[in-house]
Amino acid sequence: MADLIFPNNNVPIEPTENPIVFISDLHFDYTKRKFKAKAASQMKSDFITFIKERYADSIICLAGDFFDSYKKTLSFVKELEENQILGFFVLGNHDYWNNGTKSHQNIINLFSDETQDNQYFKFLVTGRKYYYKDICVIGDTGWTSFRRGKRQVTLKQFMGLPDAQKVKDFSPKKIMSLHDEWVSFANGVLNEEEKVLIVTHFPMIDFTNKDKDCWWSSTTALKGANSWRIFGHTHRTEQQYNNVSSQRGYNNSDAEDLERRGFKQYYVYAFGKLEKSADQYSLIASSNFESISKFHSPIVVSNVKNELALIATIKQRGYKRCASNKHNFAVLANSPEAYLEVVKEITDGYLRDTYIGYSISGRISRQVVKAIYHSIAIIESGDFSDIRAFMTAAVITGYVFNRMPLSIEGMRPLDDYDVVRFWLMLLTMKQYGIDMGVIDTVRSDKKKHITFCNVDVYLPAVNNLSLNEDEVKMLMDKTPLLPRSIVLLENQSS
Question: pLDDT digits over 206-221, tens only?
């Protein structure tokens, strides 16, 4: 096996089959989404201790946003080097922040100079190449192109970002120039090298919904599939093909919360991991409800007088869950084929994509994997007669469509009131032809309701459009939501 090779100051490192571990957006100086600089030092120490204990045999890739200060970030990087942490890092946009006296390029030059003698923890920036075994490692902040597809968005709207006050001579045009230089360099490496590991802070993929999203996502024009690409910035752990992230965000816990819940600040599931490719999942998907019944709750109100608390909870939930699923349901309502195509592509990305001889380590449990495949089979069958099965499958695949399959494990099981609400939302979208491009709001229509299992359920108003009450009652008589079978209930309780 080849050693880990650096272009300067080579050090003897024992070659191992090291996994590649990654995380980003640690934001040490934020606790519970609030800036709390005093807590940052302990959090940083806990992080270094954790990776030394758990990932001593790994290559650590950190994709930026450590502090709201370049000085604190530089100090952190020096600590990683002193602790002989083996790996790579890039700067996030927060790591450039200063009192407005230094530009992006000033900070890049400073970090390049201050880390040039690092023997263990290496700074990735345009123009630098390192080698881990037979893999070429490159990276940069990456920046954004401020483009959606082929169109450049209006740049003036981004001058209100905090970065505009925190960095000298902040300019979207200068950022575009840095981005173009990075992409040109990266494409050259992708063309020359057989296997490439890329780390950036800004995403290397375009998943914008609106122009303003270009600060978090852009068209990058990177070419070639001979790489894994690790990114950050969005505060969402996600994967699209060979683009992956494992992001922490602003939600660090305070000491009191950790003690009360018996948790530690860091845990293995918060990190992404690339490992040598292993055997893939193989299963036969079933299209019946039993295959996904664990994601459904059989709870219904049977006694109005004695179950007032349950009724209150059911009513309080309203259409919040539907509103958060409005985009995926709009695509499902109008084009189930296109919807399933996206779901399958993202699922394949999480489970089967292998690049440069590595696959993403299995963060999705076997049970969830089976549930996703079974849900795809249910929707693919086109059988709408079992509303419970279809809508449960739609919600499970909705997590995948929204690139959040890791959240399926902890989802609140749907009850039949959820099922009815989702079903009526889907029918409303179908009837009025409301697709993803024009969907705005999903709310309760306070003037229309039906009584279902002893609870008054308001009809959904999608873009202020709702179905007719009599029509809904006829539909429910035609396609009844029958009670769950005793066999299924026994299986779930066992």
Answer: 989 899 999 999 889 8
